[in-house]
Structures are given as structure tokens and as C-alpha cells.
Write a structure and sequence with these properties.
CATH topology of the largest domain: D-Maltodextrin-Binding Protein, domain 2
Bound molecules: 1-O-pyrophosphono-5-O-phosphono-alpha-D-ribofuranose
CATH architecture of the largest domain: 3-Layer(aba) Sandwich
Order of helices and strands: EHEEHEHEEHEEHEHH
Strand order of the largest sheet: 2-3-1-4-9-5-8-6-7
CATH superfamily of the largest domain: Periplasmic binding protein-like II
Radius of gyration: 19 Å
Oligomer: single chain
CATH class of the largest domain: Alpha Beta
Largest sheet: 9 strands, mixed
Helix content: 25-40%
Length: 215
Amino acid sequence: MDRRDADDREMLTIALPKGRIAEETLGIFSEIFGEDFHFESRKLILEKGGFRFLNVRNQDVPTYVEYGAADLGVVGLDVISEKELDIIDLLDMRLGRCKVSIGIREEDELDWRRPDIKVATKMVNITKNYFASKAVGVEVIKLYGSIELAPLVGLADAIVDIVETGKTMRENGLKVAEDIMDSSAHLIANKNSFYARKEEIISIYEKVRDVVSSK
Ligand code: PRP
């Protein structure tokens, strides 16, 4: 599906996840194209140098790209793995490195053979797939945030969540029981855009790849 007007065709639209990854990506584009790309305080669109950057929530980046409202996007591998996305994964940008890990209370040792283990998470599919691959039966409880709270108040025995510095788990008396996967921000493309604007997209991909591999 492609919802843009013919007038917008020239401008390549890139959805970025609000915050540090957006700023670091704009930094890479500034380095490549010699322009100062920067979102103004509350603005959600930045049009400059032939690009239209969209400032969106991390979880929403794939939606903009899948529907063709953005040609390209930058989003965590965890989000790509969680949603079954019909997009092209172009490049690991090596930004925002983190892990998806299982956390339990500091004082606990979980016996995964127990029949009634509850796991709270935002990432239901990653969690289900991981435990299914280990042939461990767990009940997965979907939460939208503050996941670390769940084991502290008896809502769940364990959590599956993003661990970057480990500070949030530590400060809430949790420890990592197991790591499920490494994640970092990836450059993704809408399939139609990729085939329709292949040269342009490949050229950007190559330039971004050269910058990230030199860091
Ligand atoms: C993530 C994650 C953890 C925290 C981990 O939340 O859910 O709570 O970061 O980071 P740390 O290991 O460096 O402490 P985030 O702040 O992205 O908010 P969210 O829950 O709204 O996604």
C-alpha cells in the first residue's frame, strides 16, 4: 500500500524512533550529506536536503514503513523480531545495542520445569517463541511498561525485557537469568519503495554502512 501523493514522490521519507537513535541517525545523515539535520523541539517532520524525516514512537516505525508512509525506517531488531514484518532488513546500524533477557528476583532460582511459571513482557512473540524452542511451558502475561515491577508484586515469576545498562533490573532487585537475543537498530525499507527506488536506496544504504562500519 502506498498512501503518499504524487507530489511527495521526490522526497525520500525516513521514519526514526524518537530519542537517542533518531538523533544518532540524523548525525550519520549530517555526516554523509553535509547538512545539519535536527528535529525542532516538538516537530514531528523534518524536511531538508531531499529527505523527509518522521519522528515516531519506536514501536510505530515498522508500521509507517510497512504501509509505505515511510520508504525507510530505523528500528530495533527486537521490534523486527516481535512483529512479523513484511519489510526489507537492510543493515545493522550498530546503534542502541542491548539484549533481550529473562529477569528474575535476585533471591530466586527458577526451576523451569515447574508447570505454572508466569512470564511478564511487552514482547509476547519473542517470549513465546523462545520458551517453545526450549520446550518449556510458561504463561505469558502482556504488559505495556514498567515490566520490572511484575515479579516484585507477584504478578509474574520472571520477565522478558530489554537490558541495556542493567541498571533498571539492578535497582529493582532483579538479575538476568538468561539472555535471549542481542538487539541493535537496523535500517529497514518498504518493499515497494525498495524496488521502485532501488538505486537511491542502495546508495543511501552504502553510505550509511560505510559510516557505521568506520565507527
Ligand atoms: C527499557 C526496558 C527497561 C530499560 C532497560 O525501557 O524496558 O526498563 O529500558 O534499560 P537499562 O538496562 O539501561 O536500565 P525504556 O526506558 O526504553 O522504556 P519503555 O518501557 O517505555 O520501552
